[in-house]
Design a protein that fits this description.
The protein is an alpha/beta fold and 303 residues long. It has a single domain, classed as 3-Layer(aba) Sandwich (Rossmann fold), CATH 3.40.50.720. 42% of the residues lie in helices and 14% in strands. The chain contains nine helices and eight strands. The chain has an eight-stranded mixed β-sheet, sandwiched between helices. The longest helix has 31 residues. It starts with 8 loop residues before the first strand and ends in an 11-residue tail after the last helix.
């Protein structure tokens, strides 16, 4: 039986464990040829803490009859980003999908955060979404210029923390909020080249959730595993397929069997005058507007 991704070549960053591993296994099962990228670092970015992770996932895919190669380049390094794309082209002759999943956390309350921690987290999440994607887009644009049709996908990873913030995760929240905004810009700019861009805000059990949510996200024997990363892989595989070509500029949240779209920032209640609004008027206007707006989702960790 043909798979949803037959003939598609997919790069997945941070695919040595958790969500990335689930994506890689699902993509291969649907017929994709997969580049499993993982630097082999720990949950806090410790070098060598997960050495061999990419190779292990490749072994799983090949054992099941799929096609995959491993790559251990750093997604946030400009030249390494090109090597990741080149790995797909050299092994499989093409590229159709890039899934930006790599990342780690350095959780800290804002008053205790260091600039080194801030830079490390923003680098891997936000710069990491830029470097590899820019090289992938360069390839797709060149293909189109040479007369080859392009039906490509960028699938980014934001987070609930990026959409509404999370106590103790200021750097991570800021980076993931940047990823959501980046996705909107990519969708607006790249559609003319046959490239879609969407983002995911997954709720799943990974190494990064173990510290903060370990007990709350544990599987319960005999019950549907709400936080199984494989739940998210089904949506990601569909977004990677040719069937999703009309869907772009969206942020998807998924928890267990529930999938929904994030509506993001939009205009809310307003006050308007045909002159400058004075400071005295703002004393009345702003509290009224805040009272009239729809209640926002709370910041994680405040309830």
């Amino acid at each position: 039986m043909p798979g949803y991704l037959d003939g598609r070549v997919v790069i997945i960053t941070g695919a040595g464990a958790g969500l990335g591993r689930a994506y890689a296994l699902k993509m291969a099962a649907e017929g994709a040829k997969v580049v499993v990228n993982d630097l082999g670092v720990g949950v806090h970015g410790e070098a060598g803490a997960a050495k061999g992770a990419a190779e292990s996932v490749v072994d799983e895919i090949r054992s099941a009859g799929g096609e995959a190669i491993s790559n251990t380049d750093d997604v946030a390094d400009w030249e390494a980003g090109k090597r990741i794309v080149d790995a797909a082209l050299n092994a499989f002759g093409d590229l159709h999908v890039l899934i930006n999943n790599a990342g780690f956390v350095r959780d800290r309350m804002f008053v205790n955060a260091t600039v080194e921690e801030w830079d490390a987290v923003v680098r891997v999440h936000l710069r990491g979404h830029f470097c590899t994607t820019r090289h992938a887009v360069d390839y797709w644009r060149a293909q189109l210029k040479d007369g080859h049709p392009v039906d490509a996908r960028i699938i980014n990873t934001t987070s609930g923390a990026g959409l509404q913030g999370s106590v103790g995760q200021s750097a991570y929240s800021a980076a993931k909020g940047g990823v959501a905004s980046l996705t909107l810009v990519q969708a607006a700019e790249l559609g003319r080249y046959g490239i879609t861009a969407n983002a995911l805000a997954p709720a799943a059990r990974t190494r990064m959730t173990d510290g903060a949510f370990g007990d709350a996200m544990k599987a319960v024997e005999g019950e549907f595993d709400v936080f199984d990363p494989a739940n998210m892989a089904e949506l990601v595989a569909w977004l990677a397929s040719e069937r999703s070509k009309e869907i772009t500029g969206q942020v998807f949240e998924l928890r267990g069997g529930r999938v929904w779209l994030s509506e993001g920032w939009r205009d809310g209640p307003h006050h308007e005058a045909d002159r400058r609004v004075t400071i005295e008027e703002h004393d009345q206007v702003i509290p009224r507007l805040v009272a009239e707006r729809l209640a926002p989702k709370p910041v994680y960790g405040t309830y």
